[in-house]
Amino acid sequence: MSDLEYSISDVYGFLDFSSDRKMSEFMPDAVNRIEESIKQNNPLKNKFYKHMKLKKLSEATNTLSSPTALSKDSLDSHSLEIEIEDGFIFDTRDHIYQHNIKMFDSSETKRLTKYQEYFNPTGRLSDLCFLCSSGPVGIKTLTGIKENLYLHYGFCKDKTRENFTDLSCNVVIVDIGKKSNIRISEEFVPNKGAKLYKILYLIRENTNVTIERSIKEGVQSIESKFIQFPGSSLSINSYNALDGYDSYTQEINEFEVWDDCYTQVNGKYLLEQDNVNNITCKVHHKGPGSYSNVEVKSTLEDTSHLSFLGEIIVDKTAVDTDAQLTNKNLQLSESATVVTEPQLDINTKEISCSHGCTVSNIDKDKLYALESRGIERSDARRILKECFLDLII
Known about the structure:
2 domains, 10-stranded mixed β-sheet
């Protein structure tokens, strides 16, 4: 079969709502809800993307080609990582580490069906991702455990990953058991084609989760929904791994926060050349007595672009909420672009909330002070950028 090039814009036109869909085998009700939404509104025309340079994602080239045969040799890298790809999950860990974590894929239809209540239309590309996925995969931890998880979104071996040139649509469930202490290291790596993600995180009661997230260069849209059950704690540290310059990223995080929860989000991004990075954080407080703090920082060089949309929503029932939202940006080039939109939607008086954003440049006095001590200008700029982001030099 000869290769056929196509884009995400073409995919919407390919959709046939009269045919059976692979995802219908696992989540029929969710498929129906999302299909009805997409029939009414094309996600690619959603005003949500107005500052995100969506054209760079929607018109990225994918190639329809014969599927690549997978073998254990091509996948097993003898590491501590769990590899995740569209409809596929593979555990490279030694069997002695596998007793606390259960993984499931399309072979376990009944287990997957119970999660469909959490998948609802967003009007965004994650809906398209859901309908076009070859099947969801998931991870479930046992109750009351302490564990480190290493999730590699994309095949670890470069050669295996490069053989996948189609659009990759990933639907992933991460279900963390009650009263657990879990540390998750996530690495998102690109294929040759674009990658879309719709990830559901269930943080069960009285559980503590820390996520270290690294997003590598490429064309990727990562949409995550975190549901924090009462008494849970969640900390996310996210950054971009600046390995190249042809990079387009959407990182969309939504948090549903219930009673007596703790939520901390730290984003740190170094943007150069023509990097495009779009960050969204929506924290919805639904229960009383919770704390959240979102802090996103970025530095921008050359013609790079950043958009930030932050939103705090506090329901009437969420009394005694303490929530902060800040976005700070260091714009180092007149050609770089920053668009930042912090928002508050408060429905009760018994809370403490604040938000703010800044766009600034390098302090010339600080730059001069470093140069006067014999530090080259390029190194001085790097030091000040890393200090701004609170990175370890």
